[in-house]
Write a structure and sequence with these properties.
binds adenosine-5'-triphosphate; 328 residues; 2 domains; alpha/beta; binds magnesium ion; Rossmann fold
């Protein structure tokens, strides 16, 4: 049985229309005209226990709104959510005991309190038994190296330190699901790597089901097996990252350094997508044209100094999907 089932889930927001100028603003106050934003629009998916899923999409696509409905913070406009047999927004408290939430943009910790005091408060809030609390605290302090700043007030922590504390805070009560909304935002390369390793580890060792939203596709590529892409409130992709790469990563790129800046580059089945002095970028379809053929065509007409073939990166594939949709 799935741990999370989402059916025909929608969330609309009413926003007041703004008119220009004094009379416009007066008018809108009287007539109360508004627009409806479909932040989440008929979304369906299920998650199995132990899955680690990336939930991605451009700014404003509806990621945070979905997470907020799953965690019970927001009530859907329509549709159903089942999280471990509960409807999150009906049974907020019960749901909260079994989930962990991290919002990268905003800490869940008490700003002026030392880190350890926040943890102690959470122990009482979640009624975590002494032994389990101690065990978990030791485990996370060791794994995330929290010891040096346990007695520092949260407001004095660096972003990376704060994120490690937030991750601990979200997991102290042994939740079965962890929701993460941009947990790597603003972190340096090393700190991002730590967060990724950590997520993989708690997923493998503690079987925590993880939903991760992010704008860093390296997070998704390194951590998740499955990817859900949301665009203007609608799911446009749900499947393996490998499948996406195979299906949408058909375009390979040949980067060539020519002996001189030839002006008339024309090759059958090949698109010249960029040029910088003697260097040209040629895009071609891997299914219809072998690289050897492109190189042979090229070598027959132009003098080549160097060349490399680059395979499509997940970043590039997703960038194209955001821009042109799935039907490219
Ligand atoms: N409380 C709200 N009132 C009105 N509109 C809202 C509200 N919350 C979100 N929206 C709108 O709903 C849409 C989806 O927002 P959401 O925050 O879910 O996007 P997101 O995918 O998380 O984007 P980002 O990557 O920028 O965090 C946006 O158009 C946003 O402006
Ligand atoms: Mg968001």
């Amino acid at each position: 049985m799935p741990i999370i089932t989402v059916e025909h889930l929608s969330k609309n927001f009413k926003v007041h229309k703004r008119r220009k100028g004094f009379w416009g603003s007066l008018g809108s106050a009287i007539s109360r005209e508004h627009d409806i934003i479909k932040a989440v629009d008929n979304v369906n998916f299920t998650l199995e226990r132990g899955e680690l899923v990336g939930y991605i999409g451009a700014n404003g696509a509806g990621k945070s709104t979905t997470i907020k409905m799953l965690t019970g913070i927001l009530v859907p406009t329509s549709g159903h959510i089942d999280v471990m047999g509960l409807t999150p927004y009906h049974r907020r408290k019960e749901n909260a005991r079994r989930i962990g939430v991290v919002f990268g943009q905003r800490t869940q910790l008490w700003w002026d309190l030392p880190v350890i005091d926040s943890f102690e408060l959470l122990k009482h809030i979640y009624e975590i038994p002494d032994s389990r609390y101690k065990q978990n605290l030791e485990f996370f302090c060791e794994l995330l190296q929290l010891h040096p700043f346990l007695s520092t007030p949260v407001r004095k922590l660096s972003l990376g330190q704060r994120m490690r504390c937030d991750l601990t805070a979200a997991l102290l009560h042994n939740p079965e699901i962890l929701y993460l909304d941009e947990p790597t935002i603003g972190l340096d390369v090393v700190a991002k790597e730590q967060v990724r390793q950590f997520l993989k580890q708690i997923n493998a060792e503690r079987q925590v089901t993880v939903i991760l939203t992010t704008h860093d596709l390296n997070d998704v590529e390194q951590v998740c097996q499955r990817l859900i892409i949301i665009d203007s409130g609608k799911i446009i992709y749900d499947g393996g990252i490998d499948v996406l790469k195979k299906q949408y990563g058909k375009t390979r790129m040949l980067i060539v350094d020519l002996a001189q800046p030839y002006s008339d580059i024309q090759l059958e089945g090949v698109n010249l997508t960029r040029r910088e002095e003697n260097r040209i970028w040629l895009a071609f379809d891997r299914d219809t044209l072998p690289a050897s053929e492109v190189i042979a065509q090229l070598a027959a007409r132009y003098e080549i100094q160097d060349l490399t073939i680059s395979e499509p990166e997940i970043e590039e594939i997703v960038r194209r999907i955001y821009k042109f949709g799935m039907s490219q």
